[in-house]
Amino acid sequence: MQKLFENWRRYLTENPDETANKIKEIKFNSASALSVFRDNGTLAEEETKIFDYEISLAKNPDDALVQRFDESLYSGKKTGFLSPYSPNELRMMDLYLLRGHNAGFAIKDGDDIVSVHNNSELSGLAREFMRKAKEVGGARLDHFDGFLTGLYKKYGFTNVYEIYQWDEQYAPTEWSFEGVSVLNPATSVYAQALDEVMFEDPETLPNKTIEVLAESGLKLDINPSLKYNSYKYGRPDVIMRKLA
């Protein structure tokens, strides 16, 4: 796992433009997913509810649906960001759009869940979208550590296989910089690791680089004190997850 992280750091150095685009993509997917997971509706709890999807598959794209999906992503202002995907890129994904609504998700590269969004009047779609995404092959996703951390674990994405530590030079434009509790297991992959090296309060966290075991036993070299403050001031790490 440490090798994966070192490879990522090397990638950051050697591919700055591609890295910036990847961070932009993860930023959008995190913000877009929040439009689904932060609403408190109960629609998805109606187990007998039948959801009707319009579908465009990468192997046989439906151009009309690709256009509607693209418009659906852009139709709301809940994300605060524009979609990083062009219509041509959407054509290469499996697209699932609720019929008659600006809400849905996509599967990229066969198993990567992206563009989970709800810009419609419906609410409570989180459970349904996660159920359907897994049913059609979705097995991994990425997000900024924080509100989505506990929710994705709840839906079975408990295997953290890579972490991209925050790098200020790739800070997403229009980033909200909302504080995140790095000590809360519902919002941080480092909660247990930092609890083990903290005596009474965050002031006692080591201010030096040490090796810790993040969620899923992923080994990383971090400065606990700096990590605490990075999260506190809205600079969380990027988390890559897959189904257990």
Question: How is this structure best described in words?
Answer:
The protein has two domains: 133 residues, no CATH class; 99 residues. The chain is α+β, with helices and mostly antiparallel strands and 244 residues long. The chain has a four-stranded antiparallel β-sheet. A three-stranded antiparallel β-sheet has the order 5-9-6, sandwiched between helices. The protein has a two-stranded antiparallel sheet with strand order 7-8.
Secondary structure blueprint with pairings:
Layout: H1 2-14, H2 16-37, E1 53-56, H3 63-74, H4 87-91, E2 94-98, E3 103-108, E4 112-118, H5 126-135, E5 140-144, H6 147-154, E6 159-164, H7 191-197, E7 210-213, E8 219-222, H8 224-232, E9 238-242
Antiparallel strand pairs: 1-2, 2-3, 3-4, 5-9, 6-9, 7-8
